[in-house]
Amino acid sequence: MTGDHTSTAGTGAGTGAGTETGAEAGADTGTGRDAIVRAARRAFTLRPYAEVTLRGIAADAGVSPSLIVKRFGSKERLFNTVADFQPAADALFAARPAVLGRHLVLTMVRLRDELRGDPLLRVVFSLGRDDERTLLRERFREQVTDRLAGSLAGADRELRAELIAGQLLGLGATLSLHRPDGAGTRTPPERLADLYAPGLQLLIDGGAARRDPREPVSVGG
Could you tell me the pTM of the whole model? Predict the structure, then answer.
């Protein structure tokens, strides 16, 4: 991967003619764009950038390499799309803090259904990789964790944002691990939110007032 990639990714290149952003890739019009993005996510998160080819992605997606070039322009721009968490973050954080926990769960389930895959989980496969895949972690932290921290109140908001991000990744991993016939797949989204959202909301709100563990607890009247 050339040094140009860093500047391309940092400036959001890939939105010009012959390319598309992550948001556009999420709306398939029957031309194979979703399949290309899903195949690219698998390829770029599981293998070093230098080993990934447009021909291989095309074969996995069931399209021609020329279609990838037409839609995304180049391998570098396609990688930039895969490394973009902004569309998912926009949807996930589109609620006021008081109801954000439930919104996060319902939106995660909806996005997984619409995208036929998890919108965030690919970052987990980039852990421990000292190559171009580090960009996925950098983007995730900037577009998801840091953005969430900026919307929270309290001195420990950065910690709580990291824990919330971890819980979202855990939810996605659990649903993926037990598909296609796991209990989570069979459970209505509203029920999933009933069970999972309170823990998220506790982190969003900052939890109950802290008590000094050395302070004696009053028992009885």
Answer: 0.74
